[in-house]
Each structure stands twice: as C-alpha cells, then as structure tokens.
Design goal:
The structure is a single chain. The chain is an all-beta fold. The protein has one domain. It has no helices and ten strands. A four-stranded antiparallel sheet has the order 4-3-7-10, with no helix packed on it. It has a three-stranded antiparallel sheet with strand order 1-6-5, with no helix packed on it. Strand 8 and strand 9 form a beta hairpin. The protein is elongated, with a radius of gyration of 14 Å. The N and C termini lie close together (11 Å). 13% of the residues are buried.
Length: 99
C-alpha cells in the first residue's frame, strides 16, 4: 500500500493498524510499527510504501479500515509532524475477486 504526499517527508515512529469492519465492529487484522522493513520511504521522499501481509485483505467484498498514529511522519522542510488517520476514516473495500 502506498501513500504519496504533496511535500517531502521524513518517517518518524508510529503504528499502522488494519481493521476488518463487520457488523459494526472493528476486528484487528494487522498492526506494525511504520519503520523499515515495514515502511519504506521513496528515494524522492514523497511516498511511503507500507508492507501489508497477503492475509490481511483476504476476504472478498469486505470493508477494512486503516488507522495510522499521529506524528508517524513529518514534513521534511519545516519539521512539522502530521496528524494520523483515525479508525473509520480510511475505508478500503475488497472486490468480489479479492483486492
């Protein structure tokens, strides 16, 4: 999974969590610290590649949500930390044939 930013960034230290959302409940599927080798900053400093296990998004036609801790990255030029993504704000729906 990739995230691309408008401004260059530095990785700091924060967790990424993926939840399966089913019947109004969030079921934790994967959680890891967003540092190498789990997260890798692109050479140009604008994108983060996050490693997600193949088994995390393995249920077809299911809704998942990604949560990222506050301060997991910062703008490189101004050293300003970025807010994270709260649980429920980044939904991902798998296709009937998988993701």
């Amino acid at each position: 999974m990739n995230m691309t930013f408008v401004h260059s960034i530095n990785l700091t230290n924060g967790n990424v969590s993926v939840y399966q959302y089913h019947d109004g409940e969030y079921l934790l599927r994967q959680r890891y610290n967003c540092v190498k080798p789990n997260c890798d900053l692109s050479d140009d400093g604008y994108s983060i590649r996050m490693v997600i296990k193949d088994t995390t998004f393995n249920i077809p036609e299911m809704i998942y949500h990604v949560e990222i801790d506050d301060n997991f990255t910062e703008f490189k030029v101004v050293n300003q930390f970025l807010p994270g993504i709260k649980k429920g704000n980044w939904p991902i729906r798998t296709l009937s044939t998988g993701l």
